[in-house]
Amino acid sequence: MNAGAVTEIRNSRSKIHPKQFALLIACASIMMMFAAWTSAYIVRQAAGNWLEFRMPDLFFVSTAVILLSSLSLHSSYISFKRGNEQMYKLLLVTTFILGIAFLVLQYMGWQAMIEIGVPLKTNPSGDFVYMISGAHALHILGGIAVLIVAMLHAFILKFNPTPARKLRFELTLTYWHFVDLLWVYLLLFLTLQG
Amino acid sequence: MNDVVTTTTYDEDVLIQELGYDDHFHDHHHGDKYQSNFIMHYIFSMDHKIIARQFLITGMFWAVIGGLMSLVFRLQLGFPEESMAWLKPVLGKWIVLNDAGIGTLAPEFYYALVTMHGTIIVFFVLTAGLSGTFSNLLIPLQIGARDMASPFLNMLSYWFFFLAGVVMFASLFLSTGPFSGGWTAYPPLSALPQASTGSGAGMTLWVTSLVFFVVSVLLGGVNYITTVLNMRTKGMTMWRMPLTIWAFFITAIIGLLSFPVLVSGLLMVMMDRGLGTSFFLSEIFIGGQALEHVGGSPILYQHLFWFLGHPEVYIIILPAMGIVSEVLSVHARKPIFGYKAMVYSILAIAFLSFIVWAHHMFMSGVNPFISNFFVIFTLIIAVPSAVKVFNWITTLYGGNIRFNSANLFAIGFVSMFISGGLTGIFLGNSAIDIQLHDTYFVVAHFHIVMGIAAFFGMYAGVYHWFPKMFGRFMNETLGKIHFWVTMIGAYAIFWPMHYIGMAGVPRRYYSFDSFQAFSHFSELNQFITIAAIIVFAAQVLMVINFFYSIWRGKVVTEKNPWGASTLEWTTPINAGHGNWEGNIPAVQRWPYDYGKDGKEFIPQIVPLAEGEKDGGDH
User: Fold this and answer.
1) ipTM
2) How far is the alpha carbon of A32 from chain B, nearest alpha carbon, in Å?
3) Are B301 and B188 in contact (CB under 8 A)?
4) Which tens digits make up the pLDDT trace of B312-331?
5) If DSSP codes are grouped into helix, strand and coil, which group holds residue B487?
6) Which residue range(s) make up the domain with A173?
7) Is A3 near chain B, with CB under 8 Å?
8) A49/B contact by beta carbon, under 8 A
C-alpha cells in the first residue's frame, strides 16, 4: 500500500482521514449485504413452512467473547497512544485469542444446532442462521487477518507510535468494532425474529 | 444575453500559481514511482487517468463482443429460414448442420447469446465502461485533486473488473456453453445445475465473474465517494461541483448500497446449487423425478435481484446524465439551466430508485395491492426526470450551439431519453403491464432509455474528453457519420419493436414458427435486423476512429480547446501523475459561467469580480 502517497495527497483541511472514511463506507456496504439477508429472512418467514427453534446458548457465549475482544482491542489502542508498550502488546494478543475463541464458539454453535435437530437443509429457518452466521464468520476471519498484521507490526517493528501506525491501528479498530456490532445486531435479529 | 461577447484569454498558469495552494506534492517526487517503467505506467498503473483509459478500452472490447452477439440472435429473429452455415467456423458446434448443409443456430446457444448480451452490456460496458471510465478520469481532475483517495484500491478496482471479464470470457468457450437463463439469473434455471445446459459450469463461472465485478464496483465506489467528499480543492464547495461530479458521486452511493444485495442473493443461489438448501427452490420435477427441494420461493430471489437491478439502471444512466449536462452547457456556450434543480433531481432519482424495484415483478406473483405502491413511486420518477429534460432543453434554447460530435450525441441523448422515458410511463402501470410485460415493448423501452441513451452519453463523453485523454482530437467527419447513422438506425431498430410488442409478441423466443398471429411481423423483423447490422457497422467506424485518432488524430495545441470553465482544462495537455505541475488550483466560482458579463466563458479559477455574484448561489 502506498500510505505515503495518500498522506501526501491528503487535503489537510479534512477532519476525518480519507482512509478512515473509506473504511466506514465499506462497512456501510457490508451492512447492506446483511440487511438484505435479514430482510429476506422476514419475507421468507412470512411465507410459512417455517421451523421455529431456539438459538443455542453457545451463540450468547460467543457474543460475550466478541464484545470482550472489542473492549481489549480498544484498551490496547489506548495503551498504544499512551506509549504503554507492554500493555499494548498484551491486549493485542488477547484480542487475537478472543477472536479465535469466537470462531471456535460459532463452530460449536453450529454443532449444537445439528444436535437439536436443525442441520443444514432441514428448513430455511435453520439455513438462514447457517448462512448469516457463516458469512459473518468470514468477515471475522478477515478481521483476524488484519489483527495478525497488527501483531506483526507490534512485535517486529520497534515501538514507535507514528501517525501512520496510529492510523493503521485506528483502521483495524474500526473494522473490529464493526464486525463485533454486526454480530450483536445479527444475534438480536435472529433471537427476536426467529 | 449581452450583445458583445468577447473572447478573453486567461493566463491559467499565473492564476494557479498566485491563487492556488502548494500541497508539497512535488517535493517528494512520488510521481516517479508511478511512472517509472512500462508495466507500472500502463499496466499496473495507479494513475487515475491511465486507469480511466483502461476501463474505457476494456469496455469497448466488451461492447464489440456484446454487439456481435446481438447481431447473431437478430439474424435468427430476422432470417430464421436462412442458413447460418457460414457462421460455423466461428460458432462451431452451436451451428447445427443438416444433411443438406443448411445451418441452424442451436436454441440453447440463442438463449446463451441473449443472456450474455444483457450481462455484458449492462455490467461490463455501461457500468464499468461508462462510470468506471469517467468517474476515474474526471473526479480528480474536476475537483482539483492529485489523484484518488487510494490509488492502490483504484488499481485493484480495474483489475477485479479485468478478472471478472476473463472469467466471463472463459465461460463462452465451455462445451456446455455460457449461462443461458437470462441476465437476471432467475431460479430455478440459475439454482439447479441440471436445469439447462448453461446452468451448470456456465452459471458457476457467471456467478464467479459477477462477484469479482461487484468487488470492482465497491472498490471503485468507496474511492469515488471518499475522493469527492475529502479531497476537493480549496474553494470547491459541494455547490460548485460540476454536474458530472454530482452524478458520479451519487452513482457511487447507489452502487455501494445496491450491489451488496445482489451478492446476498447470489450467495443464496450458490447455497441452493452447492449445498442443497431450498431458499429459492420448491417442488420441482426434472425428468419425471421430484427434487428434494421444498419450501423455497423464487420470488424472494427476484426481490433481492431487483433491489440491485433497478438502482443499476440509474447507475448506468446517471453518469450519462452528468456527462450530457456538462457537454451541453459547454457546447451551447450557456450556463446549465437550473443547476440546483439538476442536483436535487439526481438526489430524488437516486432515492426513488430504491423503492420501485417490484415494478419488474408485477406479473410474477407479487401481491397486486403491493404493486400499487410501486406503481405510484415508479410514476413519480417521471417528475425529476422531466425536470432534467426541461433543463437540458432550456440550456440549449437560445444558445450559440456548436454542432460537433460530442454535442450531437448529447442532444441525441435527450431525444432518446424522452422517447424511452415516455414508454416507461406505460410500463410502470401494473394494469397495462398485463398486456405489455415480457414483450418487445419492454425490449424497446429499456434499450432506448438506458441502452442507447447511455451509449450516447458515453459517446458524448468520449468525443468531448478525448483531447484530455490522448492529447489529440477524434475525426469530426467520422464522428458525425457515426452520430447520424446511430441516431437514425437506433430508432429504426427499436421504434418498430413497440408495435410488435403491443401486438403481444414475447421477448426471448427463439422462433415464432408456431404462432400464426405473429407471422406478419417477419418483414418488420428483417428490417430491424438489417438496421441493427448497419448501426453496428457505424460503431465499428467509431472504434476505428478512436484508435486511429490516438496516434494520428489532430494534435491539441491549446490547453482548453472547447473553452470550458472546469478545472480539467487547466492541466497541461498531456498531464503527468499529479495532474498539475505546480500548485493545485483554487476554485473561485461555480462551473457554468458561460456568456456572463460579456465574456465568452470564465474559468472556475478566475476570482469573482468586485460585487459579482457567484452563479451557483441563486
Assistant:
1) 0.90
2) 6
3) no
4) 999 999 999 999 999 999 99
5) helix
6) 57-193
7) no
8) yes
